[in-house]
Amino acid sequence: xxxxxxxxxxxxxxxxxxxxxxxxxxxxxxxxxxxxxxxxxxxxxxxxxxxxxxxxxxxxxxxxxxxxxxxxxxxxxxxxxxxxxxxxxxxxxxxxxxxxxxxxxxxxxxxxxxxxxxxxxxxxxxxxxxxxxxxxxxxxxxxxxxxxxxxxxxxxxxxxxxxxxxxxxxxxxxxxxxxxxxxxxxxxxxxxxxxxxxxxxxxxxxxxxxxxxxxxxxxxxxxxxxxxxxxx
Length: 232
Ligand SMILES: Nc1ncnc2c1ncn2[C@@H]1O[C@H](COP(=O)(O)OP(=O)(O)OP(=O)(O)O)[C@@H](O)[C@H]1O
What we know:
Blueprint: E1 16-25, E2 28-38, E3 43-48, H1 54-61, E4 69-74, E5 77-78, H2 84-94, E6 95-99, H3 110-120, H4 125-138, H5 154-166, E7 172-176, H6 184-201, E8 204-208, H7 212-216, E9 220-225, E10 228-231
Parallel strand pairs: 3-8, 3-9, 6-7, 7-8
Antiparallel strand pairs: 1-2, 1-4, 4-5, 9-10
């Protein structure tokens, strides 16, 4: 089981706390010293021109990539103190992801896709199924639980991906262009959904988006340019 080794008390004020994050790929410095604090229950959007470093930052904050320099605390845990196995456990338990392309497993039903991270975290099958059904119901998908991704619409698939991201009650959900592949009706639904989840469950979201409307519905918008936060 994952034991939380180092707790940074100061960072409890923030759900996510990044200090002077840098990331280079060879000679290319993509992140040039990012300082970012994200509060519990906040919906934060990250916007900026293509190539500004938004996805790179999201991947690093989400523990999918490691920074070249700087430090990150999530939910009071300093990520640099975790080895790879602990990091993977931490990610599964405390972080949810929603991507532009939902990345559901095609051979499993909606219900099974949502249950998966809970089963990996060691939750019993009965509890995982109960919670998955509850979430799918909350997202208006009770009638689609036994469908496979290929039998679902784009908006439904994305809502299943949101349910999967929420199954372990994560500290924070990172979403990379979550509405990028949806039509305007489903984009609107997703925006409403994020706000409901924030209001009903105090869920924290960090969203990279080109969708100006989604950004304006956030509590805060952070603008990136050329590897730096220039506003927000
Ligand atoms: N693995 C990598 N190796 C080399 N360069 C990379 C790698 N990942 C990203 N980059 C470069 O880092 C820069 C920032 O990329 P990133 O995907 O973070 O930008 P972005 O702001 O999310 O852009 P977009 O809005 O187009 O998705 C780009 O110049 C990109 O080519």
